Amino acid sequence: MEYEDVSALAVYEKIREEVQLIYRSRLQTEILLSLIESNKTLSKLREITGSTSQAVIPKIRKLESMHLLERQNHEYQLTPLGKVIASKMADFSRVLVVINRHSYFWTSHYMAGIPATLLNGIGDLFNSEIISDSNVNIFNVYENYLKIIKEAGYVYGIASIISPGHANAIGERIVGGIPVELIISRSVALQLKEEPYLSKINSLIN
């Protein structure tokens, strides 16, 4: 089957049966996802899926016929093609969990400003949590932010504001060998070219 440059919907229409063949079966989905972590015996697959051999074996045979699964040394494992399919299924599941768990956050923020490459990795926020505060102390959020920075084992973040306190806290972590990666807004980038930030950045170059 040849695929010209067409829309996502048109591609789906051409391969709809294959897509539904995988996602329609709970057992097939569970088998594929469970094998991402490690190879499994038939008895282990029965335990994970809570199903009998009579139910599991036909699904295994179907996945084998699709070249997504193979048996080696009495264990089942994903083929290279199976690894690709299963990883996409796993990412799709993580994305749905992230969106559903923090639906208010995503629907109340301006997501159009987030680069597509980052949005494509939104599933990586699976274990994230939203930290918010209703304290009337205007400095409470600022103090908590600095506390999180000082206690973190790594700092990967997005910053649209800057202050000497932020810069000092992050600078101390860099000197301490803590990995730091920040995506900053254009206005913050311009501020970092000025003092007192410029000299601090120069001191951290080494």
From TrEMBL:
SUPFAM superfamilies: Winged helix' DNA-binding domain. Residues 139-195 form the Methanogenesis regulatory protein FilR1 middle domain. Residues 16-94 form the HVO-A0261-like N-terminal domain. It comes from the Archaea. It holds the Pfam family HVO_A0261_N. Signal peptide: none annotated. This is Transcriptional regulator, ArsR family. It comes from Candidatus Methanoperedens nitratireducens. The lineage of its organism: Archaea, Methanobacteriati, Methanobacteriota, Stenosarchaea group, Methanomicrobia.
